[in-house]
Amino acid sequence: MVKQTIQIFARVKPTVRKQQQGIYSIDEDEKLTPSLEIILPRDLADGFVNNKRESYRFKFQRIFDQNEKQETIFENIAKPVAESVLAGYNGTIFAYGQTGSGKTFTITGGAERYSDRGIIPRTLSYIFEQLQKDSSKIYTTHISYLEIYNECGYDLLDPRHEASSLEDLPKVTVLEDPDQNIHLKNLSLHQATTEEEALNLLFLGDTNRMIAETPMNQASTRSHCIFTIHLSSKEPGSATVRQAKLHLVDLAGSERVAKTGVGGQLLTEAKYINLSLHYLEQVIIALSEKHRSHIPYRNSMMTSVLRDSLGGNCMTTMIATLSLEKRNIDESISTCRFAQRVALIKNEAVLNEEIDPRLMIIRLQKEIQELKDELAIVTGEQRTEALTEAELLQLEKRITSFLEDQHPESKLEVGADMRKIHHCFHYLKKLLNDKNIHGTSIASSEIKDHNSQEPLKEEEYKKLRDILQQRDNEINILVTMLKKEKKKAQDALHFSSMDRSELRRSQSSPFPPGNPEGPRMLPPSAPTQAPDSSTSQYRSSLLHGKTGMREEMSLGRQEAFEIFKRDHADSVTIEDNKQILKQRFSEAKALGESINEARVKIGRLKEEITQRHVQQVALGISENTPVPSTPDLLEEKLRSQLQEEKRRYKAMFTHLKALKVEIEHLQLLMDKAKVKLQKEFEAWWAEEATSLQVNSPAVNSLNHMKPFPQTPESQHERSQLLSSKSDVYARKILPLPGPLLHSQEQSSPSIPLEDRIPERPVSSVPLTGDSQTDSDILAFVKARQSILQRTGFQ
Predict the structure, then answer these.
(1) Rounded CA separation 591/102 (Å)
(2) At what angle do helices 119-133 and 195-207 cross, to 10 degrees?
(3) Given the DSSP bridges, would you call strands 315-322 and 7-12 parallel, antiparallel or unpaired?
């Protein structure tokens, strides 16, 4: 528990005109306590000798002069309160002062510059920064924004705020439980996981606030607003939950109707504002007096909501905003007097920790059962009903954990029920008998384990054969695909060469038709070497450029997947979806930039309206003419532009949400199409492997294989092909793990490896008769034999 008085601070607003000297001064006393002295200027109309008081002195925790920046305000006022909220204590910061003294600028900030951010955005940034640093707890953050206008509460974050009038919106009502805790009905809580989401909620609530023009302030807030941050934290595995809330209150400014001369709706608003501030002062006075039995919290809605902040479970801070000009001296003195009364109030902040209700229920149920067992022992009642299956299972689990616990002082707690005690003894006796029977069968089990090692070795050898067979299937599939590709290229090249030769003969030929020295047609294998090399290079580059391919595929299987994907019917749909997704991303980016521009323009229009009103007030004061009650044409135009920009901002924000939904839908469609493509490829690959296992000549006997004629020409072509493509085709076969094979050799030296893994001699490979295709097949077989040599199978 932390007991402390409400902290009070003073901030002096910069004056528009040059300030007269000697109106106020800031100094420190002997205890280094800052004090503010307000000096009343003499009025010659009262005479040379009068008994009026000439100066007032007030003490504060700290006084911020006109040149203090927003960052200094946050570091000295809001940051300590935010740290206490992170620790689990409630906190409140509220600004009090006359209209136009800078309360909204201090709490919310200005929209013109980034450095003008107020306490609310800086506090949100600080809290989320601390949450990201602390990974030892699980945090949850919720935001609410309450407006009290004419003594009626409204939810500023209600989505119906835009399309409905203020009278049609549901009003927030105050409910009180028997423990005198306050609950607000119809006030929504919005979860914010990031700083950006919380700032968007703040900006949305600020656009829905009631703002009107008065002679004292062009953009005067006509309502009290309470921005609340609800923070809950819990350590993983802990039963306690910490819940804290931070109220950031922007009170409406008090004003003297006789001085401002307002009427109509502005007069009604001023009456409600002054009345609620009067009730607030009554609560402050009642709390500062000793032996006061009744505190009038229920007189107004604002004091009911802030009950904990005023004399309750909260760490409260007040900021007195002062406009120390000659015409506002009386209001500034009244604000300082109010702050001195507030400083007398003591709050008792308590760490808000709660126990999880579910764990509390379990603990109480256990306590009830223990009391029943004790009562049965005292009364001597014997229970005759049998234990249930759940109780028996629970007892057996306790006995098992007791036997496994190595601690010498561990205990077996079963209660005072004799039925449970007897069952424990029977279960222990059963475990002891089972252990004796198990000891006699250890020798026989060891013999069985020794005999079962040989089948395990055979299973490992079988596994290695299956892996090698899988590699052979991949080679055969790639050979089949290569034959098809080369046949297409040969046919196309053959037809094109025939067409060109016929065309040349028809036009003019330097040779007669029967001349034996005329141009001869090249064999089909010669012109296909260049397309084949270019095709293999293209496939290799395409394979290495794909980053989305699954890493567990072999290289040959990856290349087959690329060809399968290129010829698949859904490839066009996937590409179209990619283009649409890129277009939607660019649209969302452009729309976000437009939203930021609209936000900046809204702030600029508000500033122009404020400057326009200040100019009119200054002109009226200088010319001693009354300020016109109706705005001029330029101001009406600016206000219409402001409303139009707000509508445009809301429309673009809605469109951005729709784009986000569409982008997520497109990404889901692309993921589904990729999964479908992968499944169809796996099915096709399995079908090809099965057919090759049945029809491939590799599975037939070696006696039925056709020998390859070893001619000098074929040997020369084979050496050229191996030198040009060995690096391409060798990468398509994954080598088998060497250490595993060596371990198998050591485990069974009695069985030679030559008998387990069948060799495939080069001279016994089935050939097709085409020299180019046969060379490719020989390249694959050579690569296979090189793998077998490296792994120790040959």
Answers:
(1) 34
(2) 160
(3) parallel
